[in-house]
Amino acid sequence: MSNLPSEPEFEQAYQELALTLEQSTLFQKNPEYRIALKVVSIPERVIQFRVCWEDDQGNLQVNRGYRIQFNSALGPYKGGLRLHPTVNLSILKFLGFEQIFKNALTGLMMGGGKGGSDFDPKGKSDNEIRRFCVAFMRELARYIGADTDVPAGDIGVGGREIGYMFGAYRRERNKFTGVLTGKGLAWGGSLIRPEATGYGLVYYVGHMLEYAGAGNWEGKRVAVSGSGNVAQYAALKAIELGATVVSLSDSKGSLVAVDGGFITPEDVHAIAELKIQRKALADYPARAGLKYLAGARPWTHVGKIDIALPSATQNEVNKEEAEYLVANGCKFIAEGSNMGCTLEAIEVFESQRKAKKGESIWYAPGKAANCGGVAVSGLEMSQNSQRLAWTAEEVDEKLKNIMKNAFYLGLNTAKEYVADGEGVYPSLVAGSNIAGFVKVAQAMQETGDWWTKTEA
Q1: 291 among the known binding-site residues?
Q2: Which end of the chain is more exposed for a tag (fewer CB within 10 A), N or C?
Q3: Do residues 275 and 226 make contact, with C-beta atoms less than 8 angstroms apart?
Q4: Active-site residue 252, yes or no?
Q5: Quick one: how far is CA 403 from the chain centroid?
């Protein structure tokens, strides 16, 4: 790829997948899958466009818009839209690449894609955000559809933005169709969708705890990063199940429990209100038992914990932080964010898993642990297709089953393709990568996206 510009985030995501495939017996048993890896690593389509919109002063503003339609072997492209000044092709390609295999692990008919813009919603008025969303969708509408590409929300895109975009699509295309997920309940949305990624993360870790003989969430001390939807609902569900949550964070700093304190549901709800107002965690009023640390991530400030749930953004746990978590007794780490841990951090966790066996930390990658959000997006698509609305209990039960199946699919695939010896926890990162890859590769082969020489 020397003729291409550097795309560090995408290259990291590719290397993580390729390394686990190489270190397993997959290519030994199925050498033809090397061809599939080459094919699946190139997007089917990369769309870039300009977005012109008017600010409140009547000035013309211009941003870049993107949609990466990465792979449609299993169904319509599916993946979120991110509005953030850091958005570029590398980040969106990494997210879209991860999305392919994450969606495969849900067992639902969804391909992988991602999109967004370098527009920064912070500091913008409601009218400016509406004008941007309408202008963005006016361009994006040419390339998406309920049976082609179904975007959802991501960082910077919540219910308000989805509403503006859905309305713009409806007017532009003269169709009322399930072209976006994360919609309002009155116009095609699904119950449990806002909670799904956080809840699903907790359900997934529950199976890790059970398999490891560590009981359930009761009494566990849990560090959570982030303070958006994923972190909020992961914290609330963990607290509901009996855990003690000791941190939340945002891009400017961390709120950490001190002197025997802990995060309460009331704290989470109040912080959620702050985030709706687009305020920082630093604006949360200080109280006894909690301390705000400017410019810090929580991992080296939470002391002894049982479970870590990185739920903010990519690469939020580095090697040194991983070593700190291990040294302070953390036994389970699962990504609520996409690619939350660096490759060096994952190596720390995986080397500990092999060396200390049942006494080690056990790591779960985001493509498995946080697939609950896109799973319920898939369930929203199903409800839209049937013109039905399921109850919260129905959706939650389906979510629990999807997370259980994703856990055991990764677990059993690791047992089949990774020889770690007796007494070692199966590698969930290897098992999830292999399981998702094989499912997509088989679909691509059977539909002619790639073939071996003897098949040609």
Answers
A1: no
A2: C
A3: no
A4: no
A5: 14
End-to-end CA distance of the chain: 26
Starting at the edge strand found earlier in the chain, the sheet holding 332-334 runs: 244-245, 221-224, 307-309, 332-334, 362-364
Q: Are 104 and 74 in contact (CB under 8 A)?
A: yes
Query: 114, 183, 237, 367: which one is catalytic?
Result: 114
Handedness of CA 119, 337, 152, 9 (dihedral sign): positive
78 is in an annotated binding site: yes
- From residue 347, give the alpha-carbon distance in Å to each of 80, 82, 303: 28, 28, 22
Contact 330, 361 (CB under 8 A): yes
Residue 377 assigned as binding residue: yes
CA atoms within 13 A on the CB side of 283: 12
**Sole residue written with tokens 């919260």:** 392
Q: Which of 362, 293, 280, 373 is nearest to 79 (CA)?
A: 373
Q: Convert the pLDDT of each residue in 321-377 to its tens digit.
A: 999 999 999 999 999 999 999 999 999 999 999 998 888 999 999 999 999 999 999
Residues of the chain with CATH 3.40.50.10860: 42-177
Closest CA to 349 of 304, 298, 305, 308: 308
State pLDDT tens for residues 130-167.
999 999 999 999 999 999 999 999 999 999 999 999 99
* pTM recorded for the entire structure: 0.94
Query: Cα–Cα distances in Å, from 193 out to 29, 120, 159, 405, 436?
Result: 39, 24, 10, 19, 23
Whether residue 99 is annotated as binding a ligand: the answer is: yes
Reading the block at residue 278, the tokens are 């687009």
Region(s) of the chain under CATH 3.40.50.720: 196-369
Burial of 127: CB neighbours in 10 Å, binned 0-12, 13-18, 19+:
exposed
d(CA 116, CA 132): 12
Report the distance separating Cα 316 and Cα 322, nearest Å: 10
Sign of CA dihedral 437, 438, 441, 447: negative
Q: How far is Cα of residue 102 from the mean position of the Cα atoms in its chain?
A: 8
Is 367 known as a binding-site position?
no
Is CATH 3.40.50.720 correct for 42-177?
no
The burial class, CB within 10 Å (0-12 / 13-18 / 19+), for 410 is buried
Give the full edge-to-edge strand order of the sheet including 247-250. 247-250, 253-257, 290-294
Report whether 123 belongs to an annotated binding site.
Answer: no
